[in-house]
Amino acid sequence: MNKKDDFYFMGLALELAKQAAALGEVPVGAVVVREGEVVGRGYNRRETGKNALAHAELAAIDEACRTLGGWRLWQCDLYVTLEPCPMCTGAIINSRMVRVVYGASDPKAGCCGSVIDLTALPFNHKPQLVSGVRAEECAALLSDFFKTLRSARRQTETPTEPTPSTPLSNMPPTTSKN
Length: 178
Ligand SMILES: [Zn+2]
Prior knowledge:
The chain is an alpha/beta fold and 178 residues long. The chain is built from five helices and five strands. It has helices at residues 3-22, 46-49, 56-68, 86-94, 135-156, and strands at residues 29-34, 37-43, 76-82, 99-104, 128-130. It has a five-stranded mixed β-sheet. β3, α4 and β4 form a beta-alpha-beta unit. The radius of gyration is 20 Å and the shape is globular. The site of zinc ion has 6 residues, from α4.
């Protein structure tokens, strides 16, 4: 599969990430592709699903297993907009995924090269890694989302002017004791 195909399929993952953002979810999207055909789709639904497992990659892998009728995705590639976390990298290894193609790196939780590269450890399966595909678009989607979230929080948390009756002496000190 060449670079142009990777660009195209990452575009589908980006569209799914935008669906997550529309729900107020951190925008991460993923697709599983087998021989040029999408067999699984997913996007982050942790908030709406109230579930720590509701990551884009797990949803896409889950759908791919159902579509293909088996747990071995040994002819499949996974495209995801953000570098997979430890849980999802584990699922990628367990599902025998051929390749993982990701966009933006995740220095806080990424386990395909950032915090650690789990695929480099001597597990029973070693997926190939491709990083940085449409990374700027993937990262921009995330940074725009967090920017909007922060400004929304600022609006809802607009501090009210302290009135003379406000017992300022009861407020926590603003300076650190260290
Ligand atoms: Zn994950």
